[in-house]
Amino acid sequence: MKSTLIVILFFCAGIISAQNFKVEKVIGNVKAQIGASENWSQIKPGEILIANSTISTSEKSSVSLDGNNIHFVLKGSSALPLTNLKKMSLDQLILALAMQDMINAPRKKEEANSKNTAVYGAEINGIKEPFVVSSNFGVQRLNGAVQLAESGFKESAIIDAKETFRKYPETSKMSNFRIYFANLLADLNLNEEAYDDFKQIGSLKLDSEQKSEVAGKLDMLSKKLMKN
Amino acid sequence: MIGTVKISAQSSFGLSGYWAPLEENSTLMNSYEANPENFSSLKDWGLSFSYGGEFSNTPTSSLYLISLSKQIGRHFVSVRYTPGYQKDFIFNNGQSILIHDSTSQALDSKYTYKELFGFGYSYKFSGQFSAGFSLRYFKQEFDQESVEPVFSDTLYLNRFSKIDNINFWRADFGFNYLPSKYFSFSLSTINLFNINESAVDTTLIPYEIKKYKGVAFGLSVSPAENFDYNFIYETTNALQTGFDISFNIFNGKARIGVTGFHDNYQSPFIAGIIPAISFNTKFLGVSLSGVKYFSNRNIQHTFSEFTNEGLDNIINNRYSYDKAILTFTFALNTIAEKEVQFLDANIVRDIYPTMSDNYLNRPFATAKVINLTHRTITIKPSSKIEGINEDRIVSPVVKIGPKDTAEVSFYTIIPQSYDKKKTGISFVDFFITADNSQPDDQIQKPILINGINSWDGKVINLRYFIKRDYQFSMDYSKKILSRYKSELDSMAYSMSIFYKAKILFNNFVKELVYSANPTTAQDYVQFPNETLKLKGGNCDDLSVLYSSLLESVGIQTALVDYKPQNGIGHVNILIDTQLSPDQARLITDNDSKYFIRKNESGVDEVWIPVETTSLTNFDNAWQLGSEKFNRDALDNLGLAKGIVEIVDVY
Fold this sequence. Notes:
By secondary structure, chain A is an alpha+beta fold. Chain A has helices spanning 4-17, 90-103, 137-150, 154-167, 175-187, 191-201, 208-227, and strands spanning 21-27, 30-33, 41-42, 48-49, 54-57, 62-67, 70-74, 78-81, 123-124, 127-128. In chain A, a hairpin with a 2-residue loop joins strand 6 (62-67) and strand 7.
């Protein structure tokens, strides 16, 4: 039912319609993985990156990207699939979350084990922004996702983070990231989703401050859900 | 007794009255008088006895009638013996002998009219139309006393009887039309053929039974439930009209009816009535009927009148007396009575033999059926597809309320051995069976049977093509993998699945080229051995082949259905590597080339998309598969929008 030509057109269509980004500025060691390639290559200013590329920055490095009316800076120790560097509507986010549920059922509760991580960051709008210096690619992706959220791409940041938690199971035990993205869901009034996340977070190893925050959020969200 | 008036009654007169010959009536239609076309709703054997008496001083036989009937398929035959259908006339023939003592002795004549037996046959062309004929044998015996002189030594007179027999056959033809269960129409001849057995003494012609030719029209309608109105008219200006009402009681049907009859020769206008009451069950019937004439039957008639008028009906004429008849009927049903009937049947899905399991779960046909009984019944639908099924395949039973209709579904089993490649039209016989061992009804419909390579275009059904050729795939995969035994044995078990998938792909692609629809323009899917034999196939064929090879060695796969957008669709596959997410880095440094799914035990596993039309090597196929899956299924939310679907093979 299908022809070679059709298949080729498929792949071309994907490439043509992809949102490309121009590399404006590079500081330090910044690499890109194009599409499904296994190789990482250094990127340079002026280079055009296609949307299905993933970029990764080393510690104390950064890259400035421009395209599709988006200007974005990815800081050090971060990674970001460019497909997630896009504005999503709330409806699109809900659809994407439903799709993730279809593919990936929620993970089983596991014991948290977040050794060799140091947390620092600032509070933005009452939400403590996590950042972890790590060579773990999953953590780098979470760092990237946080920066997406900071830059106003909360919806795509949530999708990026949730995918990362699934593909890099150890990151799902990192309570600071989990709390951060659960708060994003609550910010977007996705109360049910946020409540589910906080419930899962409650089973992780939390410090007293986190325990208090999670309990407070669960209480607040359950009240909101009751009202609805 | 001697008659003085015209003595001709209608031909259709019967001793049990005229009853509606509707399909539902179980009364035995053994009256060739009103039913020369031999119509019957009997299902198998029927036997009836009519016993009665005439309110006269000289009764004839008390046994009026014995009849035996049998339905054989669409044929219905009946015979009857009618010893009571007899009329005797004894009278002085006007001659007398004067004896020497001046006394005289009258000479008598005795005329006997009998209908001895009859035979009927009819054929049911359809549920609405039947036609048939009846053949009846009549005997007429004219016994006239006379004297003849005998000359010897003395002259004396010898008194003797001169007996003349004028026997004849009567044949009539007719048909019945029942367009609905509420209406019936019949048309039959009267005295169509009369064949005398021997030459007729012309002096006896005035005394023979008259044989006026004509036609009888019958009509019965049921304007209301359990009420029939009946009417029959003969072109000799005779008629019968009446009604009957019925009600269900004691698992049977009771009927009360009355028939009035008129002919051109008797008076008053309605010469008499035949009231009747009957009770019929499935196997037994009993009826009591009578004939009541409205004119005085005790009038003397002269011989000259009899000579002038003659006789044309043995059981109903000017000289007939009131009667009472008790009739027993026995329906010896070795064939079950129809309890349920098809109204229509529709094929809802053509047959794709390879997708055999589909027909176990979803019906290929539906039918509307009606419960003909007055009780709730459970029916068993079954079907047999010519060229596919050797026996009837029984579908789930359905309950239907009294006189209600229901839709029943038909499922079927297609044997694994079915291997016809050619598409063609066949026939399917549908059966419905109620309480009986034999089906109550049957209907046949044409059905399209596709060849084994035909596919309905639904990706989910490619699973059947993957499974069918399993033995071949297993042999092929094992043969290839055995060449890499040492490498596979030396690696960690967790990695072996991924490498098996890679080895199999890299080996079979060497033999193949991609081609769009190499065999036919229609939806046609090759089995794995055919794809390898033909050295090519399209995305469906290649996905079926690769999935079959993997599944045959225990590697779980899924088909990705990229549904047609602007008429263009695509299929490739996903492979379950059984690696945990943490182990994904063992096979790739690019986390966009896999995604996570839970297995049956709830454990996350790494799945990879592979583009089977990329006949270069596994790595390229994986890369292309990933890019397409990420873009169409994930980034464009194809899975959420239903544009892309993952179909697990198992």
